[in-house]
Amino acid sequence: MIKRQLLTEIQRFSHKNKAIIVLGPRQVGKTTLIKTLMGGDDYLFLNGDDNAVAKQLSEADTFKIKQIIGNHTKIFVDEAQKINNIGNTLKIITDQMPHVELYISGSSSLEMNQAMQEPLTGRKFEFELYPISWKEFENHIGYLSAENQLEHRLIYGMYPDVLNDPTLETKTLKNLTQSYLYQDILALAGIRKPDILDRLLMALALQIGNEVSYNELAQLLQIDKGTVMKYIDLLEQSFIIFTLPSFSRNLRNEIKNNRKIYFYDNGIRNAIINNFNGLETRTDKGALWENFLIAERRKQNAYTQNYCRTYFWRTQIQQEIDYLEESNGEIRAFEFKWNNTKKYRYPATFANTYESIPALIDKNNFREFIG
């Protein structure tokens, strides 16, 4: 089993009389992670996907909750967003049973926040778990083996089941997109026309690394802009995509309101467009590399609690920088190239205005950026 970075981080916050909540997409290992945290101890496992369990917990009062828990001192509520009124149930446990360690998982940050934001205010520590990180992968199989798989991972991504059985990579990714990701989003939004969601995901997958216009997407899909925005928000809340806004502070000709959209996992993106061709024949090599690096950086920032705002930068005269981080008044800039075959010329306008010289990240030094 690949050791997860988040395991050590969560252990620091355990035993503090607060609920531990782990959010993230389905099939990234949330259940395995929390069960590992339990060690060999006896604990009560409550599965929100089980309708009988969900019914009992949604209707529970204090007396009934104590009966359900019995003598257990550790409880794991899996897929908690599926349980009505779960926030109030968990509040009763944290308030009236301080001896109980409470662990919760969920695959929709929107539903979890709606259910728990008010009842668990001040009563929880929240974490996010993503597909396997490159650092976790390399620590598990070693530097040389990981290096040999770099191009392959740009195509098939880092989901645990994909890594565990290389003979079924394509089938696994197809099942993930069709059975889990779509299913959760459709149920969450009550979407009656899944073909629109399918076409939206296709459009977004074909535009990674490029600026996305909600107006253009609305025209392409023949729906209104509000619906596009709603669906993209749902995709973000379900941990399939994330948004990178444009950076603007001082210059008149900076692009101010645009955004780029990336996928948390390259394999999911390639499954959506049904393209698993090797890197040598692809025209989107640069986009795959950029998506991989930004997604990996996002994982590391989350796992190491590196709180920063992230952006891209572009001007109306096509000066551009792929990725920026702003933290404590400092701006760090990065440009991504798969092959660093010629000298990189960074935009002097940006460097002079923001006192930051972009660093070039390529396949020879990327570990410094994502590690």
Structure description:
- Strand 11, helix 17 and strand 12 form a beta-alpha-beta unit.
- The protein is α/β, with parallel strands linked by helices and 371 residues long.
- The two termini are 20 Å apart.
- Helix 9 crosses helix 15, helix 11 crosses helix 15 and helix 13 packs across helix 14.
- Helix content is 46%, strand content 16%.
- The chain is built from 18 helices and twelve strands.
Order of H and E elements: HEHEHHEHEHEHHHHHHEHHEEHHEEEHEH
Mean pLDDT: 90
Name the strands of the widest sheet in spatial order.
Answer: 2-3-4-1-5
Shape: globular
Biggest sheet record: 5 strands, parallel
Give the radius of gyration: 22 Å
Instruction: Kindly estimate the percentage of residues that lie in beta strands according to DSSP.
Output: 15-25%
What are the segments in which pLDDT stays under 50 over at least 5 consecutive residues?
none
Topology, number of strands:
12
Give the helix proportion (percent range).
40-55%
Number of helices: 18
Structural class call reads alpha/beta
Q: In angstroms, what separates the terminal alpha carbons?
A: 20 Å
